[in-house]
Design a protein that fits this description.
two-stranded antiparallel ribbon; globular
């Protein structure tokens, strides 16, 4: 049967992709960052998952506020890079896995999660930047990807607890799939940052580090954090961290954190990356 072998959490800051696309990774500002994430790329190259379920949020590229879905799953064969106003990123088209995606959709709906099933959509930096962080600049992405989009833009967003439960349902669905696939699940977004208003530029490093520690060792203690606390402590965009709870819910209770890297700031965000492997149930 298929199995989830690891969970990865990473911010999806768009200037990271721009730095790679425009040959700026060796510049003084960016060189320490790309050196810092190198071990994660080495781990991915060594581990070679067959497929990644990538949990991200769309930034008005595939969806609009005319119709806001809480959870959406892509079931297409391919997902092209989106044009976010300056042309699509020069990265490979994302290859999907319709068979597993439809299995997940059916299992999750029957598990009482109301998934929006998407047969065609472009994918923006929320999905392509994490792939660039983990795989660099290949001619083709080395694994298939199932996009799972979460609404963290339009209130009301789902709760962290609902995201955590979704992760658990994803694990049940993956483990019921009869093909021998090695699956990694990636939660993206955050951590603390605010892009507008009087608190633009807010970064709460102490809160983020404590949250990360608890995500690894005591996820039960953060699954019920409410929207107001995320907004107060981590800024208007910090609520993206609930997508990491989908990833954490898909793993066992006991995990080993085999890599962590944080940097403050990257652009105007607290960047974080973690890799978690199951240790036991």
């Amino acid at each position: 049967m298929a199995e989830i072998i690891a969970g990865i959490g990473t911010s999806h800051i768009p200037p990271i992709g721009a730095a790679m696309d425009n040959g700026k990774t060796g510049e003084d500002y960016w060189k320490p960052f790309f050196e810092g994430i190198a071990p994660a790329r080495e781990w991915m190259a060594k581990t070679r998952p067959d497929l990644c379920i990538l949990v991200y949020n769309d930034h008005a590229s595939a969806f609009s506020l005319q119709s806001t879905a809480t959870f959406s799953i892509g079931v297409a064969d391919r997902f092209p890079p989106a044009d976010e106003g300056y042309g699509p990123r020069r990265v490979p088209t994302v290859d999907g896995d319709p068979a597993l995606a439809w299995h997940l959709a059916e299992s999750l709906v029957l598990d009482e999660f109301d998934m929006t099933i998407v047969s065609e959509m472009p994918v923006d930096h929320g999905l392509t930047v994490p792939l660039s962080i983990l795989f660099g600049q290949p001619d083709a992405w080395p694994c298939r990807v199932i996009p799972l989009a979460v609404n963290v833009v339009q209130y009301p967003q789902p709760t962290g607890n609902r995201c955590y439960k979704l992760g658990k349902a994803i694990r049940r669905a993956v483990e019921a799939y009869p093909q021998p696939l090695r699956v990694a699940i990636v939660g993206t977004g955050g951590l603390s940052h605010q892009l507008q208003g009087e608190r633009a530029g807010l970064i709460n490093t102490a809160y983020d580090i404590d949250w990360l520690d608890r995500l690894v060792n005591d996820p039960e203690s953060i699954r019920h954090i409410g929207h107001t606390e995320y907004l107060r402590e981590t800024g208007s965009e910090g609520i993206e961290a609930i997508m990491w709870l989908v990833m954490r819910g898909a793993l066992h209770a006991n995990v080993s954190e085999i890599f962590r890297y944080t940097r403050v700031p990257v652009s105007n965000t607290h960047y974080a990356l973690t890799i978690l492997e199951n240790r036991g149930r």
